[in-house]
């Protein structure tokens, strides 16, 4: 059966890592004797340059008709001077909202071969395995009003949630915890924010239906510290949009590089959106230095959650594990003085291994 996958490369290294991921998806399709329809769409700065909009209608239609969407990253200094609604990032927020993918799953796990790539002590990071469930379509990034006032002398951003928006993402986090180690950490700022107090109430309400899941509430400032001091104790962390954004970049340090963190954004129906956690990395764009593994691992999540091909997901994850165990490192993972390979080289190794595993 054919699949329709929308490919949104975006900007900077987003373009480089999705180009490699497309090869990987084609290998998976070929292993089933199928040709999948991989159609590219414009988003972010690339879309602005060509159409004047960071999220053209055509891209929206392409994604809405797809079985899954794979996105690279958007943004860069070229577009930093633009007003908020014209920035590349507005395209990213727009596609997440339009697809209503309210739960952004960001698995954080350490790879045995990468313990020394983290600046943290190996014994601290060994065996870490938790997942951040970040609310993705509400909260501070979407609330209105969001504007400069009084001729620019004042400014407002709004943190808005409905109980229903909180409940659905919290429920998804409880379901995940139930199928894992049964431990949920909810992160908020309930000592200061009214939205966080309601968040906490909803977590307690939903908890009543999950007696097998233990619940811990952490204030976000303390959570930032605990994630680094006792990462092994976390199982599922659920939190507001911006808190999840920040905490997941922090958690990347545990794994050795943000170039290793994939994500899956899911809603009730419609296509899932799959993207690496990292951004467009203008500092290394165009140099073949990007680590494509976060995007490959996002493809694995796509195979598992949207395309219902778990064997392919396993094959990709095992191939990534394989290159890491062989000591293959892109520059972000290499220690000082250690040799590193370029984007295309590590990609070719993983692709070859996946082909062999699925043959
Ligand atoms: N999902 C998205 O599209 C995101 C977009 N952005 C945008 O990206 C631009 C740059 O943002 P930054 O704050 O610099 O975050 P970033 O994630 O792009 O880069 C942070 C640091 O990590 C490194 N890095 C990131 N991904 C890497 C990879 N795959 N391999 C090797 N090194 C990697 C970069 O070289 C940089 O030093 C901004 O315009 C921002 O708005 C930022 C985060 C997410
Ligand atoms: C535009 C930002 C919200 C992108 C980002 O940092 C993220 O989703 O992790
Ligand atoms: Mg981020």
Automatic annotation (TrEMBL):
Its EC number is 1.1.1.85. Its main location: cytoplasm. Pathway: Amino-acid biosynthesis; L-leucine biosynthesis; L-leucine from 3-methyl-2-oxobutanoate: step 3/4. It is an enzyme of class 1 (oxidoreductase). NAD(+) binds at residues 76-89, 279-291. The record marks 141, 189 as: Important for catalysis. Its cofactor is Mg(2+); Mn(2+). Keywords: Amino-acid biosynthesis, Branched-chain amino acid biosynthesis, Cytoplasm, Leucine biosynthesis, Magnesium, Manganese, Metal-binding, NAD, Oxidoreductase. GO terms for molecular function: 3-isopropylmalate dehydrogenase activity. It is found in: Cytoplasm. Substrate binds at residues 96, 106, 134, 221. Belongs to the isocitrate and isopropylmalate dehydrogenases family. LeuB type 1 subfamily. NCBIfam families: leuB. Catalyzes the oxidation of 3-carboxy-2-hydroxy-4-methylpentanoate (3-isopropylmalate) to 3-carboxy-4-methyl-2-oxopentanoate. The product decarboxylates to 4-methyl-2 oxopentanoate. Homodimer. This is 3-isopropylmalate dehydrogenase.
